[in-house]
Amino acid sequence: xxxxxxxxxxxxxxxxxxxxINDRPLRWLxxxxxLRTATRRRLPALITPSRRPPGHRSLTVLRHLGMxxxxxxxxxxxxxxxxxxxxxxxxxxxxxxxxxxxxxxLGQIISSGEGIFPPELVAEFIKCRDQVPAEDFAAVRNVVExxxxxxxxxxxxxxxxxxxxxxxxxQVHGATLADGTDVVxxxxxxxxxQLVHDDLKVMAWLAPMLVGRIPVVxxxxxxxxxxxxAHTISEELDFRIEAANMLDVARVFAELxxxxxxxxxxxxxxxxxxxxxMERLDGFRFDDVDSYDSHGVDTHAVVRAGMIGxxxxxxxxxxxxxxxxxxxxxxxxxxxxALLDFGITGRMTEKRRLAxxxxxxxxxxxxxxxxxxxxxxxxALPDDTDLDAVASDLGLLDEVVDPITMNADELVxxxxxxxxxxxxxxxRMPKELMLFVKNMVFLDGAIARLAPDLxxxxxxxxxxxxxxxxxxxxxxxxxxxxxxxxxxxxxxxRAAFGVEGTVETMTYRDLQQRRETIRRRLRTRA
Length: 526
Hints:
alpha+beta
């Protein structure tokens, strides 16, 4: 039976605790640090491109991806513009689903990259979130019984045969423990570990060949994308690491006193490499707009709490949920936000966390050189980069030009110039920065759905003021800055949006109209 929790000082958990998380060591938690180290050590061998196709799997991958591109070249390519990209995106999505868990997972990550990848590609791969076929229940039973070392009926009085959700790496089932506690059980798909490792080798071999070859990856860096993807998916293959991530993120929220968030408790005993039993939480999907009204939940408050809580975890502790999307976030009837699925978690070293702090401070103070220096220290630019030259080449010190005033040829030319300059300087996207940007893109989309009339300028100023008053002295001291020297630059914020200083307000609806104008001009040039 639920009882009054005594573990809320350890994490942002529910008030209806089915069990306690206490200070004593958890058996499955003892080896997590060594598991993370071992995972990192395996990566170089997996992502170093081989000269020859790595095994039979490469032939299978080439066949499906190659046929997708060939069929597009014969039919869809001649349509041109958005229709052409949409046709290729659909064929790539179908190939990914055929190839299985690794490619479906890559598609799911791409689906969260609105604003990073073409909208047609994002729209197609969103279908990978909810259309992954479930494993046969017999296979699920075998994994659970092998991992827990007991027949299913000894541990659970009931175990739903149909999953609540089926994803690429695992699926989740509702169940009831022998003591009557309702739980959810995350079960890894059989043999997925070996398949992922084989696929990473194939991706690393194939990625260099894709550079500049097809539209959907022309502005991305496929080898760098594979490297980041390998770092994210590798830790997802051990649920002990995921359970540890749950406790870490919950602890961060508790230490920040961010009680707007709730993290499910992992079971103290029932966590293994391939099975994770956790507390069952109720609520409605984050992007279910109608449910906010029916439950009387303030959408603006939820969005604001999401922005502040997510950024606080990154800036203050260097730990944050790394895969925000509609299926991983539920809003509880009391308005608190429940975070699920901690397989991908941002975790920065102290050096990178401080670089990230400098990046945020420089951004709000409109200091381009400071931002470049922070990006260099984050690993986005080589250590010996000439920052003044980068700023000059990218035009960061020039007067802001509103992209709305550019014609199609000018927009494309500017985009190509910036991308070429960045690649020339060896720019890359470190894992932590990619996860942060991806989450910000998700929150950007959440504002579009939940609070389209929110004044973005006022909200950014509010967030900046919150951090300055709540954490300003601590953060300034950490980066060797005089707190009194901090000055939020409102004109610089407007410049980041490409608008003149005379523009006082901008809602998300206004921003969407600007973006659509830019997309339309780019499409006419395509």
